Amino acid sequence: MSTGVYKQDDPRLRPVPLDAYPWTLIPSPPTPNAIVKVSLIPTSKLVAPLRLFTPAGDDDETEEVPSWSFLIEKGDESILFDLGLRADPEHSPRCVQNTQDGRVCLGAGTHGYAAHSRRKIVEGPLRQFKPLPGKGPIERLTEHEYDLSRLKLVVLSHQHFDHYGNLDTLPSPAPPVLLGPNSLESIGPGYPADPNAAWPKSWLDKYRFVELPGADAEGAWEGEIARLRLGAFHGGQHELRWERVGCFDRGVDWFCDGSLWFLDGPGHCPGHIMALARVTASPPSYILLGGDASHSQDLYLPVPTSPEHDLRLPLPVIDGQPQLAVDPALATYTIGQLTRMSAEENVMVLLAHEGEAEGVVDVYPGDLGEWKAKGWKEAKERGLKDRAEARRRGRT
Ligand SMILES: [Zn+2]
Q1: How far is the CA of 163 from the centre of ligand 1 (A)?
Q2: Which residues lie across from 256 on neighbouring strands?
Q3: How far is the centre of ligand 1, averaged over its atoms, from the C-alpha of 81 (Å)?
Q4: Containing H/E element for 143?
């Protein structure tokens, strides 16, 4: 964990050059149906100071950003990746509820922070988030008469309230909830046992949570995580384990055909994970669901054309502290992984709050697998290079 005071140009926050990342070939699809269908489901939105997301934001500038949920379908079974914000914030634990001025204190996940910075975060910039309630993914799927019995797993990119939605809306029996490594110890014991906790204790008691193993897990996984695999796609032969894929040291091939990987993506908060989904087989193309590894295109784009011409911005620093990253060094490395993956012409990265994609990509029941054919990657990044170039000229 990094400590100390940072300046905005601190070398520790400098974007990592792409050649610093190792590369492991992403396996070819073994069969034409070794893919998943990924759909974007809009939920509530958030208003936040832009300055928390990018150093290019002015001090008083705010931004309204989406908070997305994704339906990942494989045959008759499906997974929800993130649930967005809950539609009824008034039923949240106290520290997540709106305060009188309509703002929200984001306490979720702050157990993972050092005590001194926890108070700073809860009472500082994260207090400036304002939720704009809207329908959750379950409600939207129901409107489309989606058969919720097909939902076999919920995956949370991380533990924050703008991703955990409302577990109480899940169908009964509720699917298990998969979390990144070491999430639960930073969530527990839940509210009101801990008056500052952002997770209801009732959820922790009621639902089945399973964590991905830590970075040090060697060999095939055992125990609950090994039993969690979805039925139809596992012949019982494939063992789950951390494997290298692309520029990632740790990915798990969930369906054992390379169609869906969950990736360890640390830095933003304890247990932050991402997903890499193969959405077409011939030729293969992918979507990388980046969660909150970054909150702005400015940090992972544009992809540098050379080490000398790198227009990416570092994590924003306010009052000497890098924002929205419990471990700034790890977060900076993970953001560079988004850039490295985005350098592949058959990979489109999508952040959980990447508002630039709004109105560009189709939403559920539309299929994000059409991104390449429809030019959505270029469309959501249009003008970005020019803006970054203008910023650079403004600096020099
Ligand atoms: Zn978020």
Answers
A1: 6
A2: none
A3: 13
A4: helix 137-143
Distance 238 CA to ligand 1 centre (A): 33
Task: Using the mean position of ligand 1's atoms as its centre, give its distance from the Cα of residue 67 in Å.
Answer: 7
28 CA to centre of ligand 1 in angstroms:
32
Dmax over CA atoms of the chain, in Å, equals: 59
pLDDT tens digit sequence for 233-285 = 554 567 899 999 999 999 999 999 999 999 999 999 999 999 999 999 999 99
Rounded Cα distance between 53 and 315, Å, is: 8
Tell me the CA–centroid distance for residue 290 and ligand 1, in Å: 11
Residues of the chain with pLDDT under 70: 1-3, 98-127, 229-237, 396
Show the domains of the chain with their CATH numbers: 11-395 (3.60.15.10)
Amino acid at residue number 51: R
Find the 266 Cα to ligand 1 centroid distance in Å.
14
Interval 30-44: pLDDT, tens:
999 999 999 999 999
